[in-house]
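Chapter summary example: a protein plus 2'-deoxyadenosine-5'-diphosphate.
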Amino acid sequence: MEQTFIMIKPDGVQRGLIGEVIGRFEKKGFYLKAMKLVNVEKSFAEKHYADLSSKPFFAGLVEYIVSGPVVAMVWEGKSVVATGRKIVGATNPLAAEPGTIRGDFAVDIGRNVIHGSDSVENARKEIALWFPEGLAEWQSNQHSWIYE
Ligand code: DAT
Ligand code: MG
């Protein structure tokens, strides 16, 4: 099944939104395959956001990501990349629909609480970067009640 990389950014951790975020993915019917609370180095944050290195907001973005611990996770499920992006909501929280994480819990684009991979290919790269140690092997006993 498909996997995606989801990260609760430092503002989400500081604001006590870890359980809220996990609950939304968990209740949807996706499976948590890896998770850790970590402080990342500047060079690591730059690698994660390498595609955005030419953007004017890049330095501020990296500074924000290293400003406190983040929760890095891998979630698995059918179409979890695209559906995960819907759960996360639009990049600018003011444009994000209510019911999405950014729509419900954020205001400014530079404090938008959460990251979600934008494609299956980027998910694969991000999971390899954040979890070189690999993922947990398990399947929920509820599987056949969620997937037909
Ligand atoms: P997303 O996080 O929705 O995938 P992105 O990959 O384009 O969005 O950008 C990564 C992060 O960079 C985003 O979550 C917040 C920040 N960012 C994006 N565009 C920005 C902008 N115009 N001004 C300030 N920060 C921005
Ligand atoms: Mg992105």
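Key point: Residues 118 surround magnesium ion (ligand 2) (CB under 6 Å).
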